[in-house]
Write a structure and sequence with these properties.
6-stranded mixed sheet, 9 strands
Length: 371
């Protein structure tokens, strides 16, 4: 048994190191360069405020230009009332910080009905969108910053816009542009890229412990999928409040709800010129349905599950070995406990990790009875 615990301890070093490094990097990465002229590419009307609202506000304070481009108007059809409402809300939000209407461009392509897709944008519409963004990027001031959706975004429209942006960047000779990716929401978990979010997500997948894990807004916010954590601007309460005030103007989307889930400081990370259009390798993550789990997370789950089996097995075996408890009574009690645990794991609508955790506990109880 000692040898097994030694192996588990060695295995646990990998996720522990990933967590420590990720946590230290997330505290240091602050973008302190002077803001530049900026072009923000968003799939839907509220996306540009969520991804780079603070950066735009800071750029305007330094007298720089801000250009906003939206792939859709937030509706499946451009002639719907919803599209017009969202356009007006967008102009109102950006106008509140000094962005002129002529600097906000709606491409007006159809929004997908579901986050996971399928998308409604046809190949011809996508090619047309590339041409429009080429025009915008070609006209951008020297050394301008370009913000686009991060890799691994859950919404199919975000992923489509990233593809369009990369194609547009590949058609222009603008090595002076600084391109940043902005994570908005995704189902990727890594102890290196998003250590705090990952631990809270794991905590919510462990029975009993899930009741103790706080659900404070912001703890589950997305971060970059591959590489280190995203960067942030130096903290400024007034600037952040201006961003939140912009989000509140999207009344049709529940402005206060947007503030609750997305009213945090901007998160962005530079994409080196040589890596425009090159995304991370899929082997770096394990896919579990719609989620991506970094291997550090997978290893941590394996360590946790192995520990649960061994501890449950040892605990049950130790109790049954006590002289004070009749053997038949102990076996019957633990057998009943095992049935309850197994039934709870099999019947409930649990996430895969939670289901496996319950089944590992069931396996440990059963092994303890049989030993």
């Amino acid at each position: 048994m000692t040898l097994i615990w030694d192996f588990i301890g060695l295995l646990a070093l990998y996720p522990l190191m990933a967590f420590v490094v990720g946590l230290s990097l997330s505290r240091r990465r602050v973008h302190r360069a002077t803001p530049t002229d900026v072009v923000i590419l968003g799939a839907h009307p509220d996306d540009c405020v969520i991804s780079a609202g603070e950066y735009a506000i800071e750029s305007l304070a330094f007298g720089k230009s801000v250009r906003i481009v939206f792939l859709t108007s937030g509706s499946s059809r451009e002639d719907q009332t919803r599209a017009e409402v969202r356009r007006l809300e967008t102009l109102d939000a950006w106008g509140s910080v000094g962005v002129e209407e002529q600097d906000v461009l709606f491409l007006g392509l159809p929004q997908a009905e579901r986050i996971t897709g399928p998308g409604r944008i046809t190949p011809d519409e996508q090619a047309w969108a590339v041409d429009r963004i080429v025009e915008v990027l070609s006209a951008a001031p020297p050394d301008a910053s370009v913000f686009l959706p991060a890799e691994g975004e859950s919404h199919c429209d975000h992923r489509t816009l990233r593809t369009i942006a990369y194609e547009a960047l590949g058609r222009i000779d603008r090595a002076d542009l600084c391109v940043y990716e902005c994570p908005e929401y995704n189902h990727s978990y890594s102890l290196f890229s998003s250590p705090v979010r990952t631990l809270f997500a794991m905590g919510r997948s462990i029975p009993i412990l899930s009741k103790l894990v706080p659900r404070k807004d912001g703890l589950g916010r997305a971060d970059t999928v591959f590489g280190g954590p995203a960067w942030r601007l130096p903290a400024c309460a007034d600037r952040l409040e201006m961003k939140r005030a912009m989000l509140r103007r999207f009344v049709s989307e529940g402005g206060e709800l947007l503030v609750r889930y997305f009213g945090y400081p901007d998160r962005f990370r530079p994409i080196p010129h040589g890596r425009w259009g090159v995304d991370g390798a899929s082997w770096k993550y394990a896919r579990v349905r719609e989620r991506r789990l970094a291997w550090s997370v997978v290893v941590l789950w394996v360590v946790l599950w192995a520990s649960i089996v061994i501890e449950a097995m040892s605990g049950v075996h130790g109790v049954l070995a006590m002289d004070e408890i009749p053997n038949r009574v102990g076996v019957a009690a633990f057998a009943l406990l095992g049935i309850v645990i197994g039934g709870y794991g099999a019947r409930g609508k649990h996430q895969l990790e939670k289901r496996i955790t319950i089944l590992m506990l069931f396996a440990g109880v059963c092994a303890g009875i049989l030993l």
